[in-house]
Amino acid sequence: MTNGAAWGVLVLRVVLGVVFIMHGYLAYAVLGPRGGAALVARMGFPTSTLLPLAWYLIVVHLVGGALIIVGLWTRVAAVLNVPIMASAVALLHWPQGFSMRAVVTDTAAGKAMPIGYELSLLVLACTVAIALIGAGPFSIDRARTASGRRR
């Protein structure tokens, strides 16, 4: 891997991990697990799966995002995030069209909801790329592999 490609993978990995952590934080601290379950319900999942799927999103985004940032078990963390992002693209945002825009949902409170699948599609593509490429040279995964070869 060239030096430029190594730095590129690092940038991709860190930014993607931050996006996942912030999304997991939003789902846990702002929406709460029940609010996350309501979001999952909008995608058409069975009622009995809503809360477990909301917790899956929270845990995988928070823990997986942190693992992706440091480059530990990177491919596993990315693969575990793929179903979440694929569901967001296909089941939630696809019917809204490509371009992101805000739709006002509560005029009195001034709340708007982003719709459109372009950002979710980009995050999904980046997640698949990290799952295929791996963590790159600036990672714990690479350090573990290198130390294993020296033994």
Description:
This protein is mostly helical and 151 residues long. It has one domain (3-150). The chain is built from five helices and two strands; from the N terminus they run H-H-H-E-E-H-H. A two-stranded antiparallel sheet has the order 1-2. Helix 2 (50-70) packs across helix 3 and helix 3 packs antiparallel against helix 4. The longest helix is centred in the N-terminal third of the chain and has 40 residues, at 3-42. It is elongated, with a radius of gyration of 17 Å.
Topology diagram in text:
Blueprint: H1 3-42, H2 50-70, H3 74-93, E1 101-106, E2 111-115, H4 118-133, H5 140-150
Antiparallel strand pairs: 1-2
Protein traits:
mainly alpha, 151 residues, 2 strands, two-stranded antiparallel sheet
Spans of 5+ residues with little confidence (pLDDT < 50)? none
Q: Order of strands in the sheet with the most strands?
A: 1-2
Shape: elongated
Radius of gyration: 17 Å
> Strand-and-helix sequence, N→C?
HHHEEHH
**What would the average pLDDT be, to the nearest integer?**
92
SSE-based structural type: mainly alpha
How large is the share of residues in beta strands?
5-15%
Number of domain modules:
1
Please tally the helical runs, counting DSSP H or I stretches of 4 or more residues: 5
Distance between the termini: 23 Å
Number of strands: 2
| Biggest sheet record | 2 strands, antiparallel
Helix content bin: over 70%
Please give a quick description of this structure:
The protein has 151 residues and is mainly α.
